[in-house]
Amino acid sequence: MDKQKQIIEMFDQIAPTYDSANRILSLGIDVKWRKEACKKAFEYAPDLNKAVILDVACGTGDMILHWRKNASGFGKSIQKIIGIDPSEGMLEIAKEKLEKYLQSQEVELLLGEAKNLKAVESESVDILSIAYGLRNVVDLKEALQEFARVLKKNGILIVLEFTKKEKENFLDKITGFYTKKVLPLIGAAVSRNYKAYRYLPDSIGEFLSVERLKEELNKVGIETKFAKTYSAGISTLLIGMKR
């Protein structure tokens, strides 16, 4: 089994406890990060209304719920949100959470990978978000090319991710201890799957730094407009715009 299939299978296994584990491991702070991502996206698209939003690696639908709940508060309207994820287990949870939006056809959920968004037309998306899923994409360059393809000109890309630093300070070492030693134990207690939550810190260590990610985005025609780290650098919000 190749690496990408192994990652997908892992998410299938932890899907039933994924949301509860997230809330515990982040102490609920991830909710604030997602809300700010929505707010910032709309700030960089001030004239946007009846938006088409694509949430890649949508998982259990958390980010989709944030888009729906926060749009009106920021004076925006959403025409449709498409959620795509390669894990059938995660999508099953998302379908339960998003039932009313699925029935009204305000949300559509599709099985698929970031590297192949064939179900989405070119230059049809106003905002593309991917929250804590980019580091799980093995074929990263292909995925970024797909992001650029489906975004409209001046379309907004939102990336929320755990990124690594080129140089670590003392505080980084403390947070690193938590993610490498404590987090897998808590995750395993909730999900009964130690391997999955051992994967998390490993995947952060193997992922790009913010600067490297900016470079890769620039190569596909997406210019970084905003980048901010949260909670001692544990999480990063990056906003890009397609040229």
Helix-strand blueprint:
Elements: H1 3-14, H2 18-26, H3 29-43, E1 51-56, H4 62-71, E2 78-85, H5 88-97, H6 99-103, E3 107-111, E4 125-131, H7 140-150, E5 151-161, H8 170-191, H9 194-206, H10 210-219, E6 222-230, E7 235-242
Parallel strand pairs: 1-2, 1-4, 2-3, 4-5
Antiparallel strand pairs: 5-7, 6-7
Please give a handful of descriptors for the protein shown:
22% strand; single chain; 48% helix; 10 helices; Rossmann fold; alpha/beta; seven-stranded mixed β-sheet; 243 residues
Description:
By secondary structure, the protein is of the alpha/beta class. It has one domain: 3-Layer(aba) Sandwich (Rossmann fold), CATH 3.40.50. 48% of the residues lie in helices and 22% in strands. The chain has ten helices and seven strands. A seven-stranded mixed sheet has the order 3-2-1-4-5-7-6, sandwiched between helices. Helix 8 runs antiparallel to helix 9. The longest helix is centred in the last third of the chain and has 22 residues, at 170-191. It is globular, with a radius of gyration of 17 Å. The termini are far apart. The mean pLDDT is 89.
- What percentage of the residues does DSSP assign to strands (E)? 15-25%
Low-confidence stretches: none
Q: From the 3D coordinates, which CATH architecture would you assign? A: 3-Layer(aba) Sandwich
Distance between the termini: 38 Å
Q: How many helices in DSSP terms?
A: 10
Most strands sheet: 7 strands, mixed
